[in-house]
Amino acid sequence: QVQLVESGGGLVQAGGSLRLSCVASGSISSNVMRWYRQTPGNQRDYVAQISSDRNTRYADFVKGRFIISRDNGKNTVYLQMNSLKPEDSGVYYCYSMSVHDGGAIVWGQGTQVTVSS
To answer: Which of 50, 42, 41 is nearest to 22 (CA)?
Structure first.
């Protein structure tokens, strides 16, 4: 099954933008891909989803500001984050659910995003 590696996190001021990347070790063209966010002391919260046919869904707290996309030729999923707020801070995790391999779910290691005021 695939392995996922996130990158692109960092420190940004409120109102700024970041683009996160999630690179898979193999094909994800048939997989449902998601981004989650975890803040200290809290569970991982759903952020965005993109299906194999590129249908997208977003959590209410990011709708209109974040865009999820995929490039299957590069085995990569992106999260473009705009108009960032301090409350967007946290560790962002990439998630993959395969329609093959018994419906295997894989998580990346996470990338830290810190938004300062």
So the answer is: 50
Confidence at residue 95, expressed as pLDDT on a 0 to 100 scale: 98
pLDDT tens, position by position, 59-93 = 999 999 999 999 999 999 999 999 999 999 999 99
Cα dist from 75 to 10, 13, 26, whole Å:
22, 30, 7
Q: Using an 8 Å Cβ cutoff, are 98 and 31 in contact?
A: yes
Q: What is the DSSP string of 72-86?
A: GGGTEEEEEE-S--G
Closest to 101 in 3D by CA, of 28, 23, 12: 28
pLDDT value of residue 100: 85
